[in-house]
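Data deposition worksheet. Section B asks for the primary sequence of the deposited chain exactly as it was used as input, without tags or linkers unless they were present during the calculation. Section C holds the resulting structure in token form. Section D is free text for depositor observations; keep each observation to a single sentence. Incomplete worksheets are returned to the depositor.
Section A, Depositor: J.P.
Section B:
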Amino acid sequence: MTEYNDPLLMDHEADGIRELDNKLPRWWVWLFYLTIIFAAVYMVYYHVLGAGDLMLAEYTKEMKVGDALKGAAMTKFEADIATLQPSKDPDILADGKKTFLTLCAPCHRPDGGGLVGPNLTDDYWIHGSNFSDNVTTIWNGVPAKGMITWKNMLKPKEIYEVASYIYTLRGTHPPNPKPPENQAPVKTGPSEFE
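Section C:
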């Protein structure tokens, strides 16, 4: 074993490696002390004195704010449903089509011809043929028939987009559609589907 007279080398050795006895940089030492002080203050403030909200209380508080915002948006949308008109904006229709193909097509087919759910391309609509009826049906669902309530899963904007897209399917003629259900809408003037 070779002797070293370097004052920075410590006396012990492992596998031929000797440890240096360097002092840590002052900025690192002060940062370390600050983290200890911060941890002590944090523990006293949150856990001993209980002056601040812990994570669960903060989460609960934020959820109440979020639920209030969501409830206000849902209430406003429900109040506006009767006055809504289908959009003709290509971006809105494209977003509605994307959502329709993902969530609605398994029951209504990608072309809207109907599978488990009714045909969306003809004039025979079970729950009303007006656009607002369609929005309401999507919003509230039809749990008795197996259609879930989408207002708990989709934003009002997404429901409006889907309803607007579905409105474009009317009058199309997909191959082998599901037979008409219910009755055709009563015509009182020019057709709303034209």
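Section D:
The mean pLDDT is 87.
The first helix runs from residue 26 to 48.
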